[in-house]
Amino acid sequence: MNSFLSLGLSESILHRLEELGYTEPTPIQIEAIPAILAGRDVLAAAQTGTGKTAGFALPILQRLVAGPGVKSNHIRALVLTPTRELAVQVEQSIATYGENLPLKSAVVYGGVKINPQMMKLRGGVDILVATPGRLLDLFSLNAVKFAQVETLVLDEADRMLDMGFIHDIRKLFSLLPEERQTLLFSATFSEAIHTLAAGLLQRPVQLEITPRNSTAQSVRQYVLEVDKGKKSSLLSHLICCRGWGQVLVFTRTRYRADQLVKRLKRDGISAAAIHGEKSQNERSRALAAFKKNQLRLLVATDVAARGLDITELPLVVNFDLPKIPENYVHRIGRTGRAGLQGEAISLVSADEVKLLAAIESVIHQTLVRQQETGFVPTHKVPLTRQVQERPKKPKKVKK
Q: Fewer C-beta within 10 Å: the chain N or C terminus?
């Protein structure tokens, strides 16, 4: 049996892991930690919820403790993430693991005032977790300097390297020291991204703990076939008839998320939406309420597919299938984490057949099709509207 002691971690970090109740490393940690401690570049693929953050955070903390102190406005390790939620989650984990160490960490992201973030960086930060756009903003204001960067991590690297981020990533790579350690972690890698990433690393150790783009066996997945216009009715029916409690629901667009929340509230179901048009404070409040079970449903776009860490989340519903098939893996990875059981249900209409086929091709799995027996969509109209909408008597035609 492997233990954290066998991975070469220091006594102070081992003591902290014992305080946190960590007894046995996960497969990705067993493979990644020694390689990172040895200074190697790493390209790692592992399922969501398998401990990737600790896999890179623990050895980085140990390497930084042994190095020189950080200068004003400088950073020594940089972790880039595609979303604000993931940035916050990763920094919280790093701060937790390094609580007993003389190191400082911070997180920066867009959608909030930049001045408080500039103040955080003034005295220097050992580990900075950032979204690319806000980091470049801080650099343009001379609030952050990269000369001391020893390690760069791209978390959820497939998203960081796609066309939405690639220009910012290339800009940041040109600003960082050439002599550095680079670590790429993700649950999914397309062949094109895999090739591109390999060109950014120096003789990397390639770790593929599970088959590429695979989903966790702890998550039961199936499809409910439904007419497009009846999805909202079916979702309300399932919530009420099956007694669902905490449910994370994904839609394809911001508009769909907002409209679904309105419909659910009309049906007496507490719900809130998080997406790119919501302010960071709105997103944070909704997520906090959901984690505290003050909301029954949280409706999100793919902005939340990566970075939501909700303890023992039992159920994920794909109200719409994602256009990017790999995003399906990240969506359903919000449940069944750390070996717990979870359930992922996709409501699929006829116009989504091609999207479903693309997902099944990526995950190398055919999802079970089901139909909800006993579901009869009803659209109850308030009595006042029933009165108003009674058909009027036809007017007599004058002869």
A: C
Q: Which of 263, 222, 248 is nearest to 377 (CA)?
A: 263
- Integer Cα distance of 161 and 201 in angstroms: 13
Domains 4-208 and 219-370 share a fold: yes
Predicted pLDDT of residue 387: 31
Overall average pLDDT of the 144-171 stretch: 84
Beta strands (DSSP E) in the chain are 42-45, 75-80, 105-108, 125-130, 151-155, 181-186, 205-208, 219-225, 247-250, 271-274, 297-300, 315-318, 342-348, 368-370
Average pLDDT, the chain: 85
Q: What angle do CA 333, 313, 348 make, to 5 degrees?
A: 60
Chain segment 257-280, per-residue pLDDT in tens: 999 999 999 999 999 999 878 887
Which CATH number does 4-208 carry?
3.40.50.300
For the chain, what are the domain ranges?
A: 4-208, 219-370
Tokens 């409690």 belong to: 245
Residues 6+ apart with CB under 8 A from 113: none
For residues 77 and 94, what is the distance between their CA atoms, to the nearest angstrom? 12
**Number of residues assigned to the chain:** 399
CB distance 320 to 293 below 8 Å: no
Parallel, antiparallel or unpaired: strands 247-250 and 105-108: unpaired
Residue 283, pLDDT score: 85
pLDDT, tens digit (0-9, with 9 covering 90-100), for 17-57 = 999 999 889 889 999 999 999 999 998 887 666 788 999 99
